Amino acid sequence: MNIDAAKAALAHLDIDEKEASIRASSRDFFWYSPVLKDRLDHVVADFVVRPRNEAEVIEVLKVCYHHDVPVTTRGAGTGNYGQAMPLEGGCVMHLRWMDKVKAVHPGRVIVEPGCLLKDLDAACKEQSGQEIRMFSSTWATATIGGFIAGGSGGVGSCTWGSLRDLGNIIRLRVVTMEEEPRILEFRGEELARVSHAYGTNGIITEIEMPLAPAYDWVEMFVTSKDFMAATRFAQDLANEDGILIKLATVFEAPVAKDYFQRVAPHVEADDTLIGLMVAPHSMDGFQTLLGRSPALNLIYRSDDHDWDRSPGTVFEYGWNHTTLRALKVDPSITYLQVRFGYPNQLDLIEKMREALSPEVLHHLEVLKEGGKVMFAGLSLVKFTTEERLDEIVKIHEDAGAMVFNPHRYTLEEGGRQTVDDRQLKFKREADPKGLLNPGKMIAWDDPDFDFAEMYSYPKIQAAE
Amino acid sequence: MNIDAAKAALAHLDIDEKEASIRASSRDFFWYSPVLKDRLDHVVADFVVRPRNEAEVIEVLKVCYHHDVPVTTRGAGTGNYGQAMPLEGGCVMHLRWMDKVKAVHPGRVIVEPGCLLKDLDAACKEQSGQEIRMFSSTWATATIGGFIAGGSGGVGSCTWGSLRDLGNIIRLRVVTMEEEPRILEFRGEELARVSHAYGTNGIITEIEMPLAPAYDWVEMFVTSKDFMAATRFAQDLANEDGILIKLATVFEAPVAKDYFQRVAPHVEADDTLIGLMVAPHSMDGFQTLLGRSPALNLIYRSDDHDWDRSPGTVFEYGWNHTTLRALKVDPSITYLQVRFGYPNQLDLIEKMREALSPEVLHHLEVLKEGGKVMFAGLSLVKFTTEERLDEIVKIHEDAGAMVFNPHRYTLEEGGRQTVDDRQLKFKREADPKGLLNPGKMIAWDDPDFDFAEMYSYPKIQAAE
Ligand SMILES: Cc1cc2nc3c(=O)[nH]c(=O)nc-3n(C[C@H](O)[C@H](O)[C@H](O)COP(=O)(O)OP(=O)(O)OC[C@H]3O[C@@H](n4cnc5c(N)ncnc54)[C@H](O)[C@@H]3O)c2cc1C
Ligand SMILES: Cc1cc2nc3c(=O)[nH]c(=O)nc-3n(C[C@H](O)[C@H](O)[C@H](O)COP(=O)(O)OP(=O)(O)OC[C@H]3O[C@@H](n4cnc5c(N)ncnc54)[C@H](O)[C@@H]3O)c2cc1C
Fold first, then answer.
1. Whose CA is nearest to atom 50 of ligand 2?
2. CA of A50 to nearest chain B CA: how many angstroms apart?
3. Is pTM, for the whole model, over 0.90?
4. Chain B nearest CA to A198, separation (Å)
5. A137 ligand 1 Cβ < 6 A
6. ipTM for the complex?
7. Which of A359, A415, B39, B349 has the highest CB neighbour number within 10 Å of its CB?
């Protein structure tokens, strides 16, 4: 690893030299996890480079290849698993200047990876009355490239499913890290090679995404004294084929009272809260359905309310923002990502609640998977020890609820604990020296790893 | 019933006096059914009036009320069950002049009932790049009012569900037939009073419908040698949350070869045919899915083909157009409407095929119901006798497949054989004399009817 030579060769590019900002550009939201906080807090890049276009990306990759310098790509660094953190140091390639919306067509957009989700939506809306189908709740701060390379789904997934589902990404243009970097265009089955691969096997330089119509979504809060009734309502709503929604989230009591400051004055401690986004022309249908559950209370709608202080956008209570809000009030809170899959979702949810509440409080996101309505749980966990956290994971798994562990920094441990062969195979050809975001793909480092314990990347920087 | 007095009082309106055209305006597509053909062929109105606006509708209803003249409303008369046929004679009120698109907004349109579906779509597309969510396959000839009052769903229902589902109609403005007709506005739960009520309890004078984006749908035909594989593919496609479709239809062999003249040269007798409409920006996802079934063959796509003669629009092969095409070739063909509901749809379909093919050939439409993908069967039946037809219905019902009998002219017999209390109750207040489309609501005429035999309206015109 010859850092100085690489830096010198790249000196004509936009290189960030300030130590504080190198430090900032080497971190993401890994500190959500007490486990990752313990392992990654010291990690820092040697330098940060900010390419302005694909040609400069290629230059960075080529030079770093030549000097054996690891390259970790950064969108906005809002990931939760240390995905964007340079475990071995080296170069952080920050894509903030590659933010152009290149073309908006009916049903699709072509964009550079560094564009913020909110800027992308603004451009699509202004030019065509459209918006992206789904976004991470970090819409205001995250990039589209980071969402595709590091995220999974979010606001909109209750209707459109997850990013990995066929049709939710149309095309990715990818640059490899070889002696002579290649430019590849992926569609269809090939997309799985690099989407949600943490930038370990290629850098995405252009993205084509499907669009949906942009509506003035009505954002709402509904309360219920009965957690399961609230959960069933969210599910029933999502099963109404004629009612168009973009978000349906359930927060077990007392999450709203304890952690949602602007909502707290309007709820009681035993209120389960439902957060919703409904298309304006579906509001009649929505209210008809709501009227069938007289025990539910509509306490807030964004287009018509008398709250002294607006709660802000409702989706910033959902997805991983729930954890963020809880953490701000109680730093001992962390979370789990659980799949409550169809058709047993309601049973599993109830069972976990009986077994673990209030140590674990349900936060459920309605999700479409394979044409069925189910739930993703981003459960809030009152953290005590790593052992207990592992135990809680095991209780879920034993009951049949798959857990995507957010307290791990590798692709496999955060996923289904299996190697994605398509990603591994592509890494072999696209990153022969293993310099792209090292330490994140166990299959590359240690094919025989047995997942008995948390993986620890051998070449991770030593803590001081 | 004082016809002459009513005609005289309405003489300043557009009244159709020509016998041939009165006869034509008294008929619909009832002749699809040999059973209905036998019962209804002679039915004819005394006169036809064509109001130009709501005020004239009110005038017609008021005058006919005064003179005890039955009023049967007509959109375009493309219904299949004699819905628009004046069983007792009297007045046919034809809404062809009430065809204005009043306002197009994001996500919704306000329109008069006599507007043709195709004209409505054209206006929405031109003004806003939108279109209606679903339409009857008689898009080119049927009215939006007739679709709502007499139809159930169609092209688009594979994504949005049926007309009766919450959110698929926003608002209906309705005029009653009382001494002083009232104008009512229905939303939410109230919509069920008059939608799919055949105009038996109120006349719809204005409609507010939700809209979806208008895309240049790619229309396709795919063949398979394996019927169940084709059916599973259609289902799998509809379960892909990220692939936007508007139509997925399966035709058992040899329907395509025998009845689809322009398709026949491109298929063999043992080819099951799938008809599809996919959004252009979902074509990559679609082709990826298709690629996973190498035994399926894409033989036609509307945006790129080398067929000498275009097959025309693919949706005019689906829904009830299938029956029409079959009938034209073999007049002994009729059909059934079957619900192959989730989760047993594939089993039921296979079972019925084993029991009844080729006397009954499957024609399946993918349909969303309660958030699940299932199938509506519009099975083609080689008609022999009414007894055998009833037997075939019974075989379906015994296996657990609900049949909506298209060989009956009443609401109940074409539906779930139960009285819709909301419709009956509303008829009591909106049509106290029972003059609106008489003979179509058994619950009104004969509350104790036991459905053992086909209902026969006692006051039906005598055949000459
Ligand atoms: C409060 C909060 C809420 C969140 N909510 C959600 C949510 O709803 N859904 C969700 O999926 N995630 C969520 N996340 C995680 C994260 O914010 C999102 O995944 C986000 O979209 C990542 O974008 P980013 O620009 O910050 O990516 P980064 O964190 O910068 O990068 C993410 C990963 O992608 C790689 N990468 C970035 N750009 C490229 C590129 N061009 N080519 C190749 N690799 C690249 C990085 O190396 C890294 O591994 C949330 C996080 C927080 C803190
Ligand atoms: C080839 C073919 C294909 C078809 N495909 C489909 C399909 O895919 N889906 C489907 O649902 N149907 C289908 N149908 C049935 C029919 O075409 C549709 O339901 C159509 O939308 C009816 O519209 P219309 O204007 O012809 O109505 P009409 O036949 O004129 O009327 C239908 C019923 O509604 C009543 N009515 C009409 N206007 C009003 C009003 N303003 N107020 C109150 N009552 C009123 C009439 O009295 C009658 O009872 C098909 C029929 C054929 C022949």
1. B320
2. 32
3. yes
4. 22
5. yes
6. 0.97
7. B349
pLDDT tens-digit series, residues A51-65: 999 999 999 999 999
Q: One fold for both B3-96 and B218-403?
A: no
Q: B248-257 pLDDT, tens per residue?
A: 999 999 999 9
pLDDT at A418 (0 to 100): 79
- Looking at domain A3-96, its CATH architecture is 2-Layer Sandwich (3.30)
pLDDT digits (tens, 9 = 90+) for B158-208: 999 999 999 999 999 999 999 999 999 999 999 999 999 999 999 999 999
In terms of CA atoms, which chain B residue is nearest residue A216? B106
Provide the residue ranges of all domains of chain A, joining segments of one domain with +.
Answer: 3-96, 101-214, 218-403
Q: Does domain B101-214 have CATH number 3.30.465.10?
A: yes
Span A261-274, pLDDT tens digits = 999 999 999 999 99
The architecture (CATH level 2) of B218-403 comes to 3-Layer(aba) Sandwich (3.40)
Four-residue CA torsion sign, B437, B438, B442, B448: positive
